[in-house]
Fold:
Amino acid sequence: MKKLQKSTFGILFFLFANIIFSQTGTLEGKIFDRKIDIGFPNVIIVLKDNENKSYGAETDSNGYYKIEDLKPGSYLLKISYPGIRDKVIENFVIEEKLKEFNLIFPEPCEEKNKVCPKNHTDNIIPIVYGFPNKRMMNKSKKGKIKLGGCDPSFCEKWYCKTHNLNF
Ligand SMILES: [Zn+2]
Structure:
C-alpha cells in the first residue's frame, strides 16, 4: 500500500512537472500525394519563427511527420519537394499542445472553363505540361499550344494570347 501511494505521488509529480516545464507545442500529420492519394514520403516540412529559426521534419515512407518542442507562436510553414512548387502558409499558429495538419500535395486544382479572366473566349490555347516532344515543340511554335513545363503543381489549363495570361 505504501509503495502504491509512493508511485501514485510520483506519477502526479511527473504530470505536474510536465505542465509546468514543457510549454511547447507539437505539430504532426500526414502529407498525401495528389496523383495517387496515398502518403507522400520525403516531403520537407519547415516552420520558421519570427527570429528566422527553423524547425523541420521529413515525411516517412507513409507520409507522416512530426515536429516537437515548438515554442507557442506564429510561424511561416513551408512544405516542399523537389520539382513541385512550394506550399507556403503564413501566420501558422502553434499552441502549447498537439496540432494536426494534413495536406494533399500539390494542392488539388479547381475545374476551369475556357474563359479568359478578362471575359472572352477567343484567342485561347491549352497549356500542355510535361517534357515536350517534337510534336509539342512544333505545335508550340505555331502557337497552337503553350508549353507549361514539367512542374505538376500548376493548375493553369489555358493561355490567353490576347492578354498574355495563364488561367
Ligand atoms: Zn484574355
